[in-house]
Amino acid sequence: MEKKQAHKGSGHRNRLREKFLESGLSGFHDYEIIELLLTLATPRKDCKDAAKDALERFQSLPGVFEASKEELLSVNGIGPKNLLGIQLIKAVSDRYLEKKIRVRDLVQNSRDLFNYLYQTLRDKSQECFSVIFLDAKNRVIDSNVLFKGTLTESAVYSREVIKMALEKRAAALIFAHNHPSGDPEPSNVDILITKRLLFACKVVGITVHEHIIIGDNRYFSFADQGHIHRMTRECEGNL
Q1: Could you tell me the pLDDT band of residue 5, with boundaries at 50, 70 and 90?
Q2: Which of 43, 85, 194, 215 could pair covalently with 37 via S-S, beta carbons 3.0-4.6 A apart?
Q3: pLDDT per residue over 23-41, tens digit each?
């Protein structure tokens, strides 16, 4: 019986796997990470060129992970089957971080909050406004992206936030949004939106612990800077 010939790149693939098992991702190029993920569902095909093409098209490793199914399938060498590795690792990472945040008290720890949100918001090309819903013991009930697009006073609806908070029986909220520019410094609109949301929540007896703005590997915490406390006192004075 004729022996099957090893496919092009099989030796390289084995070396990648052995390298990962020995020392994790230390020393890996980004394209090699993508290549390794593509090989999970591609038993007999060289994936190096497809990995390099994907990285070039989407400009970064996070860019590849954030790409849609349709965008990834448009890359030569990536098909419905070997797409699995890329989408699986992104979904598993998101699930891990979501579960991790659900069992931690984030109210006094803006760094933990940032670490979670940075994974989900850092590569968005438009502003996304998220709300984290907490119970009376400050445990996370749920988190949702409620609004997308450039934030304006008319784009973030207080009634929608309050409606969802009441539906989830939340006792407290944490607000978060990203700045695609990378600069987390709050704009005047960010400050006005925060004040309006604080006032609306105060009326219905819901506490606001934080509004955090995610930038490029940095963040701005309204709570850490004392703004949440000050705005809450102002709201109390206006009721």
Answers
A1: very low
A2: 85
A3: 787 778 888 888 888 888 7
pTM, whole model, 2 decimals? 0.62
Residue 72's domain comprises 10-94
Q: Secondary structure of 29-50 in the HEC alphabet?
A: CHHHHHHHHHHCCCCCCCCHHH
Greater confidence (192 vs 47) lies with 192
- 120 and 184 fall within a common domain: yes
Task: Report pLDDT digits (tens) over 152-161.
Answer: 544 678 889 9
> Which of these three, 52, 74, 94, is where a domain ends?
94
